[in-house]
Amino acid sequence: MDPDALAERKMQFLFALRSRGVTEAAVLGAMEAVDRGLFVRGLFAERAYEDTPLPIACGQTISQPSVVGLMTQALEVTPRDKVLEVGTGSGYQAAILSQLARRVYTVDRHKRLVQEARGVFDTLGIVNITSLIGDGSFGLPDQAPFDRIIVTAAAEDPPGPLLAQLKIGGIMVVPVGQSDAVQSLIRVRRTESGFDYDELRAVRFVPLLEGVAREND
Ligand code: SAH
User: Fold this and answer.
1) How many structural domains comprise the chain?
2) What is the pTM of this model?
3) Peptide bond before 3: cis, by omega within 30 degrees of 0?
4) Is 19 annotated as catalytic?
5) What confidence tier does 216 reach under pLDDT thresholds 50, 70, 90?
């Protein structure tokens, strides 16, 4: 694509984000800095600056940019935060978080996705993301507790181990509901005495699955 057309598309991309409620300067700045085009391959790369989810390897999807922006805003990330993301996928959400947080841990059950995402993080010179292969439903007990946790696959309920690994005062954002239906994006705040829940909006995510994927899944 010629540079003028690319610049034009990127401007439209930011405009679409703002018009869909992504209004925080820090979040918009991160989304301007991280080129979504690097996280989408092949036929779909041309559509990287549209506000739409797109297919990635292993039958998964890179989320819709406005949903990435709204989830990031809901997470209220600060520069001191240690963040856990469950569901690396393309790595795009983790890269956005890396601009806002001190450190990001991201986990995916597909080895290939983790390897590809690591390649993009290297290309971008991002050094504060640790990406791991595993079943993220169990969190990362060795690195817990976390200031912020974001789950980018739908669970029937917020996974217990993730709630347990959230700091007091911490925030978790997670889509909850059946995988084949519309789900609710939930924000959980951990207080001294328990958890406060609020429902943010309807979303649609691929399901949170058990275990590490087999090589050919
Ligand atoms: N955040 C991603 C999109 C995630 S798609 C992005 O920015 O591109 C959801 C991802 O969750 C998929 O890659 C899927 O493999 C992963 N996933 C599903 N269940 C999981 C589990 N139990 N542990 C870790 N990753 C999981």
Assistant:
1) 1
2) 0.97
3) no
4) no
5) low
